[in-house]
Amino acid sequence: MSILVRHKPILKPVLEPFCLCRLSGRNGGQFNGINVWNRGLFDAIEVRNAQQVYSLAALFPPLVLGSVLLVTSQVYVRMLMQRRWRSWLTKSLIARWLTNGRYYQLNLIGGDHQNPEARISEDMRIATESPVDFTAGVISAFVSASTFIVVLWSIGGALTLPMFGSYVTIPGFLVVAAVVYAIITSSSIAFIGRNFVKVSERKNQVEAEFRYTLTRVRENGESIALLGEEEEERNDLARTFANVREQWRQLARQYMRTTLVSHSSMLIAPVVPVLLCAPKFLDGSMSLGQVMQAASAFTIVQGAFGWLVDNYPRLADWNACARRVASLMVSLDGLEQAEQSETVGRIKRGQTQGETMLSLNDVSVSLGDGTAVVKETEVGIEPGERILVAGESGSGKSTLVRAIAGLWPWGGGSVDFRRDMELFMLPQKPYIPSGSLRRAVAYPKSADSWTADEIHSALDKVGLGHLGEKIEDEAPWDHTLSGGEKQRLAFARLLLNSPDIIVLDEATSALDDKTQDKIMQMMIDELPDATILSVAHRVELEAFHSRKITLEKREGGARLVSDVDLVPFARNRHVLSNLLARQGRKR
User: What SMART domains does this protein map onto (predicted)?
Assistant: First the structure.
């Protein structure tokens, strides 16, 4: 009977925390009630109280169920926050990246923003997921420490030790031991893993470079196969992967060092409280249940204090990923500031006077560092003119065309267009999006912008009528179509859009002479009122243009040196005459 009286009060501390549902534990998955339940169970086992053991066993399933439900809810809330934060930040960064051609301009400036696609995808994922995990971990650690420090203090009490002929009393000795133990392990992990962030950042960068190299091989598979350069690509991939392997070796060394501390801590932590409580258990001042409760509480408190030990590798990886995302943001910030700054030379864009379709007013094109590429270009283009821009390689023709299209912002002067005009640019390598052929032809507009008959007609006019029946088929068209077919598909887009100004940058380089003549004549016949500005090296293209301007590469930047009529066309030429006269005086 005395045994039952001795252990009956245990039910009260078991039921009370169960009702409160106080969360604790290293992973937030244990109730304080379970900790007290452990004490009651071992005390009942110690005195062989079968009734108490059965009563506590009946309470265990509800405790487990409550713990599981609470942890599951935590996981749902945590992942919901991660998903929404990543979604918001990724959309924001992509919007900034795609604004005003910055995704293209990043290739033209210096800075730490290589492989932006890897930073936006993988680095962004880690940069947004980890902080939520860390916040939840810190909160859980704080709650655990707050809850179980009280348990340690109340159970352990004070410890009196003989020392130098006297006795020293340490109040709350288990709490002191847990704090000291955590300070030692955390300091050790911080010292040993001090280079973890740099190693993780380098690892992420070489991984991104390796993925980029693999992607380039896939995208240029036809050219590589035709040239039989598999061995060279294999050697290049081997060199790139060697960097990956080396960085993983460095990372493995860091993991080994931190694991040495974390695993040692994991093995030692459960033993320390048992050894500290052993004297009190042996002298009868602590029961077995109290020892087990103290050991469990000590492990939880130590885990809360030693949160850094368990999460240092993840903290380092998060730091590296966050810095890579931040570096991309800094580069985008620099482009945004340059767009708004008056100190950085930028080409202005405005409206022409009268009926002039396009005018270049003292336009200078320079690199991001200020180095001039094209200097003092003044040209007026009337509606319907077809201009051929000529010059030797490296004279800045394509750069000037990109400045006209708005892709190259640095320089001076202004590029003016007639109000409400539409410009359409055909590059040498047209972009073919994934999906159906219909989407590829309609790009950059939506696939349903034109009817099937309109798309069939456009394809037939550019010599791709045999693809008319496949417009709804989804296939890797970027790899299926040849270079010449891609360029003809781009002209089909041109016919569908019917723009006011057409900019051709080596847009027929992949076509044979006969096909090129057909395409150019077809474009002129179908769009007779369009203003055309072409960059090309083929002399045969002069027959399809009414005017030819020539750039000549000179020290300090290429200059416009000639402007001649290929066929008669009435227009105002006083702007160019003044420029040539001014250049003659300079020479």
Answer: AAA
Where is the domain boundary, 316, 340, 364? 340
Amino acid at 362: D
State whether 237 and 316 are in the same domain: yes
Task: For the chain, give the longest Cα–Cα distance.
Answer: 122
Which residues fall within 8 angstroms of residue 421, CB to CB, at 6 or more apart?
357, 500, 501
The confidence score (pLDDT) of residue 382 equals 86
Output b/e per residue, 528-537; b: 16+ Cβ within 10 A: eebbbbbbbe
Based on the domain organization, do 333 and 359 belong to the same domain? no
61 within a domain of the structure (yes/no): yes
pLDDT one-digit tens code per residue, 99-138: 877 887 787 777 778 788 888 888 888 888 888 888 888 8
First-residue to last-residue Cα distance in the chain: 119
Exposure string of 149-177, with b = 16+ CB inside 10 Å and e = fewer, is: bebbbebbbebeeeeeeeeeeeebbbbbb
Tokens 């995208």 sit at which residue?
Answer: 219
Instruction: Using a cut of 0.70, tell me whether the model's pTM lies above it.
Output: no
| Structure confidence by residue, pLDDT tens digits, 73-82 | 888 888 888 8
What would the two tokens of residue 136 be?
Answer: 């939840």
Structure token digits, residue 93: 């960064």
Comparing CA positions, the residue from 537, 464, 543, 549 lying closest to residue 507 is: 537
